[in-house]
Amino acid sequence: MGIEILLRVWYIILTKGEKNPRNKGQPLVQKTEKGYIMTKREFLTAVTSIEGLPTELMEYAQTEIEKLDATNAKRRESDKPTKASLEAAAARERIIDFVMHAEEAMDAETIAEGAGVSKGQVPSALRTLIDGHKVEKSVLKVDSKHRKTVYKYVGE
After folding, report:
1. pTM more than 0.85
2. Which value, in Å, is the radius of gyration of the alpha carbons in the chain?
3. Which neighbouring-strand residues pair with 135?
4. How far is CA 107 from CA 29, 102, 150, 151, in A?
5. Kind and range of the H or E element at 29?
């Protein structure tokens, strides 16, 4: 009885054509080359919205949604910084410190060498300071084909 009911529910969801509110009006179930795609939460929510299903199936769907909520809450509470995020924060501090104490505008490569980080970390580390108008970003023309982005600390 259980699999027949689930297959019937799946068919109802497919043919009902409900729109997914999180996905800008796209169908709730997406058909791809791999098959139909739907998250467990979307499926269980759709099961609870169908009238006329056995109560044990509705209760099962509710308890599964509650389990998902509990798992997500537990994951949010235990968000500990990873080793990589701690290293990135330390690199960001070195970059900001280096730029604040520099007297002239420098490109990302020079800042990276001076701060001891990779060149790719420089623009992302300085983005908040640029938005806060503490660092000025400008483009210098090196020759007719090349340009260089430079950063200069302008103060608080």
Report:
1. no
2. 27
3. 153
4. 48, 12, 4, 6
5. none
